[in-house]
Amino acid sequence: xxTTRRHAATARLLATLxxxxxxxxxxxxNDDGGEETGGGAAExxxxxxxxxxxxxxxxxxxxxxxxxxxxxxxxELGVEIVVQxxxxxxxxxxxxxxxxxxPDGYTVLMHHVGxxxxxxxxxxxxxxxxxDFEMIGLVTEVPMTIVARRDFEPETLEELVDYVxxxxxxxxxxxxxxxxxxxxxxxxxxxxxxxxxQEVPYxxxxxxxxxxxxxxxxxxxxxxxxxTGQINAGEVKAYAVTTPERVxxxxxxxxxxxxxxxxxxxxxWHGLYAPAxxxxxVVQVLSDALKVALADQAVIDQLxxxxxxxxxxxxxxxxAHRERLEEQTKSWAQVIADAGVEPQ
Length: 344
Ligand code: ASP
Hints:
- The protein is α/β, with parallel strands linked by helices.
- It has 11 helices and 9 strands.
- α1 (about 10-20) runs antiparallel to α11, α2 crosses α8 and α2 packs across α9.
């Protein structure tokens, strides 16, 4: 997740966020000798189904991205990939569980930016994202959108800011729990306009979006991989996309900068993880399959329809992924501390 500058009291927050820029692609090239594949510990791998754990509800954006890449990866690996949703605590329940799994390459976690923010948001996380996992590779980076129930009064982002400011006690903001991308985007929004929102936590933004369409909550911020269909179908009202450029699949939607909130600029990176101790050769097999999946034209086309794209090939590697996680963990710890958010 990244952002640029901001004004007055939170200038420091924004300065730090600016350093999170993910568009300046992390080109990891740590030469720790991990390039060899085949043979050794990967001999015969995989010879049974692999489970991909999604840390949020089925039908949400993380789930969607996971299922998109799982299919061509399964084809490449010659086994089935079973997707399992383990929800709770902004994605930390699943991460904790996967960290305890056998390091044999048969349980893999798909997670997003929340992997890097959790250590600063949870006092007793129970796992260390950098120590307890092997990184397989980055997957994609997804813009977010600010969306509301269809009959919500404000028509533009500017009107939304005024409305939320005037009705801060009653307006409800849906998110997927502390550390979820929707929570982090909400923090930026609140910080930008200087209000505290009434947050309604879900176990994923799949069900949150269902409630938004049904009118049970007022607004939220969520990845285009979840909201594009509903925006284009007119089932929700959309105010802005949180990236510097407009998204091709939502050409009429202004950017937050165009709509008056340049400081709410975020995109959500995803990566695949195996439990620490998974043999390097096995990780490499998974990483190679990920690269094949990300080059698959059907995956590229479907991600484009949902407002995003695969990461460049050099980022779908353990080295680039580790570098991203290290950098993001440091940056977010600072951002969260500066924003005065206490770990819970
Ligand atoms: N988009 C969610 C988030 O806010 C997660 C999900 O449901 O995939 O992190």
